[in-house]
Each structure stands twice: as C-alpha cells, then as structure tokens.
What we know:
By secondary structure, this protein is an alpha/beta fold. The chain has helices spanning 39-55, 70-79, 94-103, 130-143, 158-174, 191-203, 216-223, 251-262, 296-310; strands at residues 10-14, 17-21, 27-31, 58-62, 84-88, 108-112, 122-125, 148-153, 179-184, 208-211, 226-228, 246-248, 282-284. 36% of the residues lie in helices and 18% in strands.
Amino acid sequence: MIAVLLSAPLLFAGGGAGVTxxxxxxxxxxxxxxxxxxxxxxxxHQACLRAQDExxxxxxxxxxxxxxxxxxxxxxxxxxxxxxxxxxxxxxxEEPSRRVARxxxxxxxxxxxxxxxxxxxxxxxxxxxxxxxxxCGVIAGRLTRTNILGIVxxxxxxxxxxxxxxxxxxxxxxxPDVRVKIAYIGxxxxxxxxxxxxxxxxxxxxxxxxxxxxxxxxxCKEKGVLAFGNMSDQNQLAPDxxxxxxxxxMYPTIKYCIEMLNKDAWVDMDLGEWSMMAKGGSxxxxxxxxxxxxxxxxxxxVRDLEEKILNGTFRVPIDEEPPISD
Length: 326
C-alpha cells in the first residue's frame, strides 16, 4: 500500500491534504477482528507481508480484536501516525472505523466493507470472488451423484450471500436437478460449529460441500466427501478432499494503492474491481492432485468459462439476497 520513499522530498496526499514527507518510512497498520488464521483477514495480512517484502514498508498488525476494543486499538494506531491503516470493518468495525477516519484526515484508510467510501480518506474493498465461486458450482453440479450439495457459510450478509448464490447458480447451470443445503454458522470463525453443520448436510445426502468457513474439511475427511475451499488455496489442509476453491488475492488492490500514493493521487473510492478475476484479484485455485482425477471434459468446461469471464463475454450474476436452502 505504500512505496519506498526516494531520497528526494515527496509530496504525499493524505486524504486530500498534501503534506511534505522527507525520508520518512511509510508505515502500514492492519487491524483484524479475527485471528489471521481465518482466511478473510489472512488474505489481507498476506498481501501486506508481500508489500513489506517488495516495497520495504514498515508493517504492524493486531488480530483477534474484540468489538469493545476495536475503536480504541484503531485510534492508538492513528495517534502513532501510520500513513495507511487497513483492515476489516464488517459488523462491529463498521462505525468505529469511519468515526476514526473522520478524526484523522492526514491518514488514509482502506477497509473491507459492504458499504461505500466516504471522503476525504476512507476507501473500501471487498472480496469479489463470486466468479470463481460460480466455477466451483459448475464442477459440483457435474460431479454430484446424489444431486445434493452443501454450503457452510458465516453470516447472511451481502458479501457472503453472493458467494453462496454464485456457487448454487453455477451448479444449477449444468444440473437443474441439484438441490443445495445452506447453513450459516453465525460467526466468522467457529470451526467446531462449521464441522457440525457439514456433518448434518452429509447426513442429509450432500456429497460435495462448499466450505465458505473453516471446519468443514474435518467433517468431509471423516465421511469421505469432497469439498471446495474459500479465499485461499486450501488444498494442503486436506489434499484428498479439497478439489479447488475461489482464491482472493488482495495484492492487486495493494499495488493500485501504491501507485496512487506514488502519484499523489489517493482519493476515497470503492476498490472492489481490483478483487475481480479480470484484474487478477480472484481466481480458481489449482486442482493439484485432482487434475488427474476429474473428468477432462469438466476441467475443459471450466477453463472455457474462465476465458469467457476474463475476456468479458460471460458475466457471473451478482446476487446478494439471502439464499434459500433446498
């Protein structure tokens, strides 16, 4: 999110108000409501680590922040004069992050949010990975033998709903007889509850499950059911279970922010398009060992759809309405 400063003075825009910075390190802070083990926040963290390596930024983060402490921790970072602060603002962090941004116009903020940006310094992003989620649904619709699929997800808000709806739409596009069982666990990170929900779906006949949350793989391994990961390449967690999954790559968003900061052109905006497949912000995870196990015609069908998405000749529908479990 921030570039290495050259030895010459640089005019830097912080929320629209220019300040002169001479040989001062760019400092990035990240604030996470969950542990970075949780994929959503983990993806942001990994992108920040990559920026740290490639652009020599100073990076600090705090994880597992309770709702009651969110604003306090965020203000402590702002008081320390970080150049850019990033994190997830969903639910408990939404209002506090916006309040703090209003009080520190000299600092730029980029937060995951289902709502819009606000001037002069609060930009938003989201994991627009519905496109590879749709591709996973196509695979599931082709492979299922019971015509029953499962989805275990976090909370029925827009950014989660569009993944579950895209997966279901992909499955129905190739197999109209499919029924999809959907369970929300009411938490961003509760592996035992996710496992319990997956076991119930398997008991109801689901033979492939989209693991939008951690915990599902354990149930699938026990019962010999295949699964799809979410947000990162999770095959290594269960190599014989995880076929593939939508991958969210925050680095294109970070790279764009770096470019804007270098050009003294940072403005509050919705950064969502840099999470799309066409911008490199999302993709389908590798098939790993399943490359040889899946029917060749299914893999080719998915590759053809990928190409159409990338060249703009096919658009995956965006549906953020709460899905209905069959």
